[in-house]
Amino acid sequence: LEAIEASEILKSKGLSGEERWETLISLYRGNPLALNIVSATIQDLFNNNVPAFLNQNTLVITGFADIIEQQFNRLSELEKQVVYWLAIHYQPVSLSQLQHDIGLIKKSQLIDALQSLNWRSLIEKSTGNTEVVFTLQPVVMKYVTNKFVEQVCEEIFEQKLELVKSYALVNPQKENFKEFKLKSILKAATEQLTIVFRNDKQYRKHLKKILSILEVKNALK
Q1: What share of the chain is helix, strand, coil (3-state, %, to 5)?
Q2: What's the pLDDT at 183?
Q3: pLDDT tens across 18-46, in order?
Q4: C-beta neighbour count of 212 within 10 angstroms
Q5: 144, CA 20 to 30 Å: which among 29, 46, 69, 84?
Q6: pTM of the model
């Protein structure tokens, strides 16, 4: 929705702090379902106060994640790779950077994948200094980051490292610059694994065990 139409949703919910409505609408890209869901959260937990919610520097995707999940499950393997790399970079990246990250892929295939993701309204494009750059919509960024972290933690716990071997867990670019900054994938994964293993010592012990197994496998190749 356009800003004026989206504002009507917030107005109908009795939300206050109209001076920050534009920021809220921008974060959820004017999606009416997302705005209705986040409005309920603002009503219930923040006394209808939009600035109070925005000051938390977070995004609410509960109730909206199922819809993104359905879209995600329909993606091709290449499209999922693009989405994961965009989440890792977090900031907008160029087509050439994505091609470098994924490797062994024709530029025409990558363009087709980006076009498909754009049709699904999962990515955004903008003009950088010299070329067009791509990123995920904020709510999609949070969903994909959460999903990636969950899968990485599960693989490490089960001593399988498919994602870890295929993707970087730290941003290859410079520091993120978006206003609503998510934790880095590496930091989020580390925190979750520390909870799973109850303490940092057990977590490190498990990682050393995995490294030992990998060293043996590499030696046998």
Answers
A1: 65, 5, 30
A2: 56
A3: 999 999 999 898 888 889 989 999 999 99
A4: 10
A5: 46
A6: 0.77
